[in-house]
Design a protein that fits this description.
Helix content: 40-55%
Radius of gyration: 17 Å
Largest sheet: 8 strands, parallel, barrel
Strand content: 5-15%
Oligomer: single chain
Length: 263
């Protein structure tokens, strides 16, 4: 049986860290889920790690649906989030159409949108329709052409704005939030302020859980790996063992703290 949103919220209320990992096909999704991962993210990161693009921007809605279908064929245990790709949320109509297709055709359990105030009306509309929504703040991969790959929220003004937008998204109806490349103290403050799970990536150890791109976890990054990632395969004898080690490290708090001390 796949995890439900209620079960994820129970983990959150009880203070158990939520382990999230990307997957893009049926076989990897099977082993990711078997490892005990709570959430599989079908990220538009597939544009970079699977398709070989330099950014996530070329990924299409049809491709996201295709990969989500494959993941859900292999996944029997985990909650599944699918990204709305670049420009799929350009308007209210586009957003509702894309989210509907990701859930009806792709089989996603939840959709993820990047941005704050701009997407709040879309979040509210989706939530009112019964669609589980994950927000995404901090570094936004779909906006890198304009803003680049940088830690967000370092100065007081931008930190306050991120907190405001996180609260705005929660009020609009998000059920979960991803914080990417945000200073750890700010991520901790946002996590403590909100009453929904906050999943961090490159945002310190004090969020409700962690997410990594599978290829980074396995040491398969082409080029320079992100500073916040860790190669779990280097100390494991199989891919399955690496996935399980990641889950254990998230659950017991060793990742990201201890892994960075020795990695």
């Amino acid at each position: 049986m796949r995890k439900t949103l209620s079960q994820l919220n129970k983990l959150y209320r009880e203070g158990e860290k939520i382990a999230c990992l990307t997957a893009y096909d049926a076989s990897m999704a099977h082993w990711v889920a078997e490892s005990g991962v709570d959430v599989i993210l079908v990220g538009d990161s597939l544009g970079m790690v699977v398709q070989g693009h330099s950014t996530t921007l070329p990924v299409t809605l049809d491709e996201m649906i295709y990969h989500t279908q494959m993941v859900q064929r292999g996944n029997q245990q985990a909650w599944c989030i699918a990204d709305l790709p670049f420009m799929a949320d350009a308007s209210m109509h586009d957003t509702l159409h894309a989210a509907g297709r990701l859930m009806k055709e792709g089989g996603a359990n939840m959709v993820k949108l990047e941005g704050g105030e701009r997407v709040a009306p879309m979040v509210r509309a989706l939530s009112d329709l019964g669609v589980p929504v994950c927000g995404h703040l901090g570094l936004l991969p779909q906006s890198v052409e304009k803003y680049g790959y940088q830690v967000k929220g370092r100065d007081r003004e931008s930190a306050e704005r991120l907190l405001e937008e996180a609260m705005m998204l929660q009020e609009s109806g998000i059920d979960m939030l991803v914080l990417e490349c945000v200073p750890s103290e700010l991520a901790k403050k946002i996590t403590q302020t909100l009453c929904i799970p906050v999943i961090g990536i490159g945002s310190g150890a004090d969020t409700s859980g962690q997410v990594l791109v599978m290829h980074d976890l396995l040491g398969l990054t082409v080029g320079k790996a992100p500073k916040f990632s860790h190669n779990f395969l280097q100390d494991a004898n199989s891919i399955q063992a690496a996935f399980a080690a990641y889950v254990q490290a998230v659950k017991n708090g060793a990742f990201p703290q201890a892994c960075h001390e020795v990695g």
